[in-house]
């Protein structure tokens, strides 16, 4: 973001010609971003290929995820100018960067193992996660958060990878 964005506190002080450049903002908090060239998959694939993959903690926690292509599509869609009336001041739009299907860590683990044709029998206890990743990051992974992309769906965005199976097959080449 530019420093000008933080400097302008009241857009009514701007000339009308300049206001059009400052009428749209959005937030797109992503889930675990899945793709072939890095992100969360880069860290997960080796243990799974070795047959050491397993659930994180209990596995019952929600595991919000998104394919990198869909995240890019949501960002591109959210950059489109909103339809506003003069009486409606612009407000930041929030497009949750997660797939429309709710998945638990257990479901994710089992599906990745199935697609890779590898066992998923070694759960990672919460205390190990805390030691390896720190307590704050471990809590995020072991407790999860249920996120629904309501605004994203309302915007008309069509997911390329709405389900976990299609996303993982594209990533691992099955």
Automatic annotation (TrEMBL):
Q: Which InterPro entries match?
A: DUF1731, NAD(P)-bd_dom_sf
Q: Where is the DUF1731 domain?
A: 124-171
The cross-references to Pfam families, in alphabetical order and at most eight, read: DUF1731
| SUPFAM superfamilies the UniProt entry points to | NAD(P)-binding Rossmann-fold domains
Which chain positions lie within coiled-coil regions? none
Please name the PANTHER family in this protein's record: EPIMERASE FAMILY PROTEIN SDR39U1, SUGAR NUCLEOTIDE EPIMERASE RELATED
Q: Report what the protein is called.
A: DUF1731 domain-containing protein
């Amino acid at each position: 973001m530019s420093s000008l964005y933080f400097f302008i506190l009241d857009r009514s002080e701007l000339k009308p010609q300049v206001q059009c450049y400052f009428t749209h903002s959005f937030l797109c908090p992503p889930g675990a971003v899945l793709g072939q060239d890095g992100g969360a998959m880069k860290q997960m694939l080796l243990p799974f290929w070795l047959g050491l993959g397993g659930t994180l903690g209990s596995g019952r926690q929600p595991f919000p995820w998104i394919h990198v292509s869909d995240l890019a599509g949501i960002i591109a869609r959210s950059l489109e100018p909103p339809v506003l009336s003069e009486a409606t001041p612009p407000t930041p739009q929030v497009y949750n960067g997660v797939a429309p299907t709710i998945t638990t860590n257990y479901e994710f683990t089992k599906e990745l193992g199935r697609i890779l044709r590898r066992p998923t029998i070694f759960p990672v206890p919460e205390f190990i996660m805390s030691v390896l990743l720190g307590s704050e990051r471990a809590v995020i992974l072991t407790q999860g958060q249920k996120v629904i992309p309501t605004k994203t769906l309302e915007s008309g965005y069509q997911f390329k990878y709405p389900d976990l199976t299609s996303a993982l097959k594209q990533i691992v080449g099955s």
